[in-house]
Amino acid sequence: MKINCIILLLFAFIIEVLVLDNGYPFKVNETGCIYTIQLKITNEAGIIEIVSPSIHNSLTASNATQFIYQVDFYVDYGQTLSPILTVFTGDQVYMNVSVPTTQLCTALSSFIIQTPPNNKALPVEYGYYQDTFRFFIEITNLPVNNINTEFPIKKSAPSPWSYSTAKRLYKNIFYFDVGLSGGSGTNIAGLSINPPQILTANKNYEFDPVKSLDFGSQASLTKVGAYPENRIIDMPIHNFQIYFNGTSTTPREKCVLYNQEYTKVLPVLGNPLNYTMVTLFTNTSSLLSNPVNLNFLGITNSILGTGLSFTFESPTNYPYSFNIQSLSNIDRSFITISCSFVLNPFHSYFLNSKLIQYPYGYHSGDKSNLEFKTIVPVSQWLGNFSFTADFRQQQLYNVPLTLVSGFVDSVPPKLESLQLLQYPFNRVMIKATISDDLSGFKKLSFGQAFELTAKDLVSGNLLNGVYQSIVDYNIGASPYPIYLYDNANTSIVFSDEKSIYNIDTLSRIPTVPYSRKVLAKDFTRFEFKSSLVNLSSGKQSNVLYFNMTNADSNSLVKFTPIYSFNAKEIIYPWLNNTFTGGWNTTAKLYQVEIEIPARLFNGRIGYTLQFEGATISNNEIEFYHQTATLTVETDFADIMPPLVTKILATSSNFSIGFLITISDPINGFKKGSVHLVANLDPQEYIIDLTEKDRISGDIFSGTYNISVPFDSQFCRSQSYTIRKIILMDQQNVISSNFGFKNLFDPLSSVHGGLPNYLSCATRVTDTTPPTVSSFLITFNSPGGGLDVGTIQGRTIKFSLTLEDLESGVSRDHIPKIYAVSQEDRVSVDFEITAYSEHKVDYQAVMILPYGFAFPNPIYFSVYGIVDLNFNIGSHGLDNSLLYEIKTTLNSAKEPWIETSLPITSKGGDLVVYGRNFGDSVNNVSRVFIDYQDGYGYLDVPDFIIVNQLHMVFKGIRQQYQPYKVKVLVDSLESNEYLVLPVYEYFEPIPLLCPGQPECSGNGRCINGECICTLPNAGLDCSSTIIIIPPPKVNTTSPETIPVINTEIDGKNVSLSGLISVVSIRELTNQGTIVQEYPFSQWLLLDRNHTNENTFLFSTRFDQSKTNINVTVSYFSQATNVTFANQLLHMSPGSIKYQIEISKYQFSSQLNYLQLIMSAKIQTEQQDSSCTYRSFNNETSQYTLVQIDKIVLQGRFIKRAIVDRVIKDIVNVPLDEAMSSGSNGENSKISQSFIGINIPFYRNNVSLDPDFSVLIDQTSASDKYDSKCSTSSLSKSKLTNGQLAGIIVGGVVFLFILSAIIIYFISKKGSSKRAIKLRKLFGRN
């Protein structure tokens, strides 16, 4: 916390000391601690030098009047230091200045390494091998706010194990990993942590030993296979797959096998007694020796002990050459790069680390002699530029260029101010003022975490502007260092949050905020419905339950399982399958429904939990909660994907293709895709494989037909080859032959895709591509450039006409239009609008991303122009045909919705982020929503403009289907934004009901609530309902006065009650009363003539601005009613208060209203009596007031209808605040006050409490904390122990009695107090 200290001297010096950072004790000796503190000292005289303390102090930054010092202070153990500085201010003036902070040096013995009860390391990887373990430690009594990530924790581990650097998880919680770095993996028992001096104890951790795989003693090797064998590899990536089949008489639960490159051997099929394992040896060297020899560690079996050997053919050499054309930057902001080469279909091509895919860059020639050409936009302010070209062959080109520029900008931009604000779901709002002398601001990058760019300009210009954006914070990446760039790529760097960014004010980079950090130790409950799941018969469903203190019911939870082997070599889509859950309002906990695929190997399942801005691994959660372990078992596991066992080339008069036989004997084949390439045709053909393509067999072994149609009149002779194949089984396990490290090559056993030759008639000689006879770009640009901040400005239309009078234009090859900027490129396909034998017309529409290329120009070019002889052409790359358009940014301030926070199908508040939302003072804004129900767009009357980037749409209804929203600001309309609500389904959790047995055997238990069989009543159905006559209703206020006359234990009992609506008040979120409005004047508006027992009252408050209507109804028979989608059972003789409150002018949107109701029961009988009252928190909330055995019970459900949306609310007891002396409770009167808390709303609120009268089996005198008359107490013969037992057992009884009293008062009372009491105890 920053603290100021100001000293005023007679010399008129004003010195202010501001503590910027409190350090931690980085040095400790035998007597005390040394703390490092960073101070900011302000002196208008402009001279400051620290004289004392002199241990170490250094000036880190200063301007004319401000100085930042780093100072060391010494403090003895067990002592507290209040530092004093001695400073020199010039002119021989020395003075002492207090530093506004205190430092405590804690004795050595108080620092302790602490671990949770489960003091055991957890494996990071799962399954049959475990070779990486994670350790968590917690260090108590450290100044946790000052611990940095380099806090010294020493570690040691026996060879061949190695450990990682300790990392801080949060505050004083650290973790580090220990892994097997090679060798046979001998058993080890634990790890010792050697702490620094300030820590007094070492900790030894235990974990299960890792066993090497001994084929000689534990298994018999039945098969060894290696692929590819003598296969031509056209990529410098050599993958050799090796399979092991074996049996074992001893089940092996954990084992690991390493080859000479320390590649893991993984089980993929079977069980510990009968298994198949696979490994992959990968070598990327272009000088790989031939043959390849592999040796394995920890293998004693003679077959593998001598190693394996593979031979292969050398890859084909595809020649190429570069040609770079550098143009003057004075007129053009680009360079042209061209390259000629023979296209290799098995290579990947990259330019400046971006993948090049057909047709981008295909300029001219054909596939046997292709000229690649593209424009690379560069800044006109640059003097130097370099690019890289990676063709995945023998050489990586890195080409530096010197550009001719008419401008020089060598001065970096200046950060004038910077503000970072935390937003939900790991978002940060950045607001910065940035200036530059010449080229203008380009971007402000925070490491790899997030960035601010020129498109975020909200006012000013690029030379002096204000920028604002809400960005996603990649919390897995460091936000440092921070780079500030201008358009000449001149930059300034800030290393961390302590860096000074403005020397004029000595302002420092603010701390990067993040959303609430949740730790595994914060969970109060964490468990799965089934902790052990059997997957032998198929996939299984499961449920995760967890809870925590101060839970936010609006938070969503994302659960991502990790494949049990955690191996990057195995491609498994389940890795990316995230299950979303949320708050279960019935169970009062978080719940996520998950699905686990079939036949995984025995072992624990890893997972991550994304919750409230934190990503928490199962390792951390299991460290604190042993119930967080999820384990699976399978009789016979299968993570072996589908493989191709046979390929046969086929052809007909109209198509060419292959018959492919696919085998997956256990899980079965599901779907796939095959990529075909030809030696002349530049286009790749992707053919999907599904069950409809199977011509014989079944999903376990079937033959599938893939084919490419052709027209014999126009075709050209060429060969087709399978370039890439991807297959997926029924459990989504994938095999693929494309990539640099895929464990399963579906073509491994058939040695690749054999070519299929297509023979066609000789065609006309044609060596030139089609010509462009017409090309037109149309866009809306009043200023002459593209306004990339508006929808119209970013919408561009293109028309294209191609002609080829020789072979003709190929209609199978669709051209693309590309828009290229300095940072990115986007493209769209053309569509054919008309064609003839030698001519084709096309059209295309492109919508550019917001702010695309700004402030630099965009270059447009056309690729993919191909004729029937496969000659390739392009358009827009020559100087005479260059399409360059300048950009501007949203001068009209058109609104734009970019994204939204997740919203569930329950509806509620929709939070949207975007641009130019305006404000409620200077702009006229409207919000619209289209629920896709046929009614079109409707007004959203309630919304909040937080700032011009952030809006909240209130009162979104319950909706399961997608819907659209848009914003109108000062007649400027935004884009339509599609909202996809998150569907929440929660598997019902059986809830127990009160009573022994449940509901005392007098009712049914439904969702944790007893539905009593008449005449039984009460929370546990142990009480008896009293059917009182219709209560007397006060005609001047909604008060009911129940009159109770009944016989109990052979004695006549007479009581009266009062249910009333007392007042309403506005409170702050801290509970402070802002306004309170007592109710005094009511108007009886109507008495329902069809029901003589229904009355409607109304009054106003808040200077007659707000109406409150109260409908009082008496039920003579048992009735079911519904409120807020909840079914309520009304007993005979019960009274309901239906309360409606109109719009209220809140002082703040953070405030809430509290409606106060009262329930009272009293007796005038002179006999001795006892009273009791209580408040219970169940599915509904109940208040009870009781005299002897008579109970007036009020039921308040935890729901209200707020602005037409059902919301959870809270009801709170107010007896201590509202009751005093005899007015609250004595032996003759029992009274209770309830506050119904109403959240901020816009238009209206509906509430629904009810009341009933019961006879409790337990008298008030037998309940703890009851009030009894003196005569009643003198009759008691019970001991203190007996009284204690009665007290404990009487809580339920008091509850029931209070409910009965409330019921009678509500029914008969007509006074204002009676009405208030009914409201107080009604449902929400």
TrEMBL record:
> Any signal peptide, and if so, which residues?
1-19
Q: InterPro entries under this entry?
A: ComC_SSD, DUF7034, DUF7035, DUF7743, DUF7949
Give all residue intervals belonging to the DUF7034 domain. 770-888
Give the top-rank taxon of the lineage listed in the UniProt record for this protein: Eukaryota
Q: Which residues form the DUF7035 domain?
A: 637-750
UniProt keyword annotation of Transmembrane helix present:
yes
Query: Ranges for the ComC supersandwich domain?
Result: 1058-1254
Where are the bilayer-spanning segments? 1283-1306
Question: What keyword terms does UniProt attach to this protein?
Answer: Membrane, Signal, Transmembrane, Transmembrane helix
Domain DUF7949 residue range list: 993-1025
Q: Which Pfam families does the UniProt record give? A: ComC_SSD, DUF7034, DUF7035, DUF7743, DUF7949
Q: Which residues form the DUF7743 domain?
A: 408-517
Please name the PANTHER family in this protein's record: EGF-LIKE DOMAIN-CONTAINING PROTEIN-RELATED, EGF-LIKE DOMAIN-CONTAINING PROTEIN-RELATED-RELATED
The entry's protein name is EGF-like domain-containing protein
Q: Which organism is it from?
A: Polysphondylium violaceum
Query: What is this organism's lineage?
Result: Eukaryota, Amoebozoa, Evosea, Eumycetozoa, Dictyostelia
